[in-house]
Fold this sequence. Notes:
Elements lengths: L8 H18 L6 H25 L4
Amino acid sequence: MLQLKAYRISHFLPSLALLAAGLGAAYVRDLNVFFTSLFNVLPTLVVLLGGAYCAVYQTPA
């Protein structure tokens, strides 16, 4: 059973900050080629890193 005490706002702040930065960068019109290509592969990179984390620590997905 999940306990509400286990969830703190400090656990979510880094993710929320990254989400806000990503949304802010998405609205910038003039990005150079490096950032455009980075944002194109970023979702795949995050999924692969998450899968590697699950494989190493053997957490069920």
